[in-house]
Design goal:
about 270 residues, alpha/beta, Rossmann fold, 7-stranded mixed sheet, 3-stranded antiparallel sheet, 10 helices
Length: about 270
Amino acid sequence: MFRVAKHLMKAIVGDSVDVSEADGVRALHLGSVTIQSAMRIRDPLALELAYTRGMMCFLLFGFDIKNVLAIGLGGGSIPKYIHAYCPEMTTKVIEINPKIIQVARSQFYVPENDEYLEVIEGDGLQYLAEHSLDADVLLIDAFDSNGIPPDFCSQNFFDQCANTLNSDGILAINLWGSDKNFDLYLQRIEQSFNGKVLILPTGKPGNIAVFGFNREPADLRIASLRERAKMLEKTHKIEFLQFVEKLAEHNQSSNNRIFLSPNFHVL
């Protein structure tokens, strides 16, 4: 059945958007063999890739999150997860490529728009430029066959990210730790968020979730984060406790708490 679906998809969207399947996992590719998104067929709502689970660590820091904005849909793993498991949140996704929207819905089970999830075909950069103080959480996962598009890693872009978030807003962006420009991108995020940044490696080498905060989280004590992680793990199949330990390891910290400090990160 999948071979037929794949054949039909290529006829519709061309070679730039492709889907593969191996060992019960369906993957999205954009012009290369690199996996952009993945879904376990028997558990389509689960977050298959570690970096997507790491991105959800915004839940450790935000306690009254209502509005989530995502730039880039891919296979829709995180918006689909939030839609299923975070009923108090509404998510808006801006995706410029209609082919990706079509594939996300037909092959990755992203639901149709409703009052909690809205996928909009449009230019994410333009949307950010036209909306300020508009979101509690901003998710950026913008990769193509060549990596991060230049317009999604400029100083102006990260400034717009900070401006789009409300005063308590949180940016969560997926970066490649092996990217030769990773340190430059991190410095730009730190500048846009006045040093209020944390990094969370989710693989060696591999994806690094970077969090930027318009306001410093109220409680960065490690004991408090562990308690928060334990509570979240009761309702989420995400290794929040392990992520807390990684946050403490890869950012400036003491035995008691994690500190927000620019240009101090251990990779």
